[in-house]
Amino acid sequence: MKVITTVVGSLQTNCYLLIDEETKCAALIDPGDEAEKLLALVEREGVTLQYILLTHGHRDHTLAVPALKKALPDVPVYIGEADAHSTGIGLLVIEAAILAQNNKTAAEISVAVESLKPYVRASFVVDTLTYLHRGGRCSAIAAMAGGLLKLHPQIIVEHGAMKPTKKYRGKMDSVILSYVKDMEPALKHARPDRVFITHSGCESTIINAVRSYLEGLGIFREILETRAGGVISSHCGPGTLGVLFIES
After folding, report:
1. pLDDT (mean) for 91-108
2. CA nearest to 71, candidates 100, 111, 39
3. For residues 126 and 124, what is the distance between their CA atoms, to the nearest angstrom?
């Protein structure tokens, strides 16, 4: 499986091209804008586009669909519900792509993905509460107190809602490692196929430390790093990092 990430539109949304390198079949995920750019990418990779997959219906994830359908009228479009952080949905999309490779029908894929949704574990730690406050997700008092006390809350995503849980204090590099280490019991019950590290612009030393720790657990066959898109980054702010996986 090959995954190509490209950024599209004024909101800098991540769009993904998933490619089966054996069959040269592909799925395009969240074509938020710039249809011509995406069609050129498909042509350049020499693949046959089989699916257009939308993680949810927001404009910044769907704007290129009409032009894509005009150019590729036989390619079906499927849309999911936004029950998780976008990378959490990405985990489900990869599972759907693997099922498609195994010649499962759209109906079979839909049933299988729906059964996995309750087991997606999506969480992250934010560097500052300022952006959550600006987005109406925490009060001004909470944001001010968090700044004064240097608090970095862990946020979990359940049924599309973000909920604060544990609060960490200190420098962000040690906070993120503590967050990941606290997840170890849950990580040991994860499906071993893959885990995502998703961030909104963390230092490479922090990302590499998280990757090294996950590699040291000896659980995952694949550790994928993704950069959060403009929408997620604007809600959470720079320095946010999350580890996302599917529980067994």
Report:
1. 88
2. 39
3. 7
**DSSP H stretches of helix in the chain:** 35-45, 59-62, 65-71, 86-101, 106-116, 130-134, 140-149, 172-182, 184-187, 204-217, 230-236
The whole model's pTM is what? 0.69
Contact (Cβ atoms closer than 8 angstroms) between residue 231 and residue 13: yes
Residue 140, token pair as written in the block:
């001004």
How far apart CA 48 and CA 25 sit, in angstroms, is: 5
CA gyration radius for the chain? 18
For residues 41 and 59, what is the distance between their CA atoms, to the nearest angstrom?
21
| Kind and range of the H or E run holding 245 | strand 241-246
Q: What is the pLDDT of residues 103-160, one digit of tens each?
A: 888 889 989 988 998 899 999 999 888 877 676 666 777 777 777 778 888 988 776 6
Identity of residue 83? D
Written as one letter, the residue type at 248 is: S
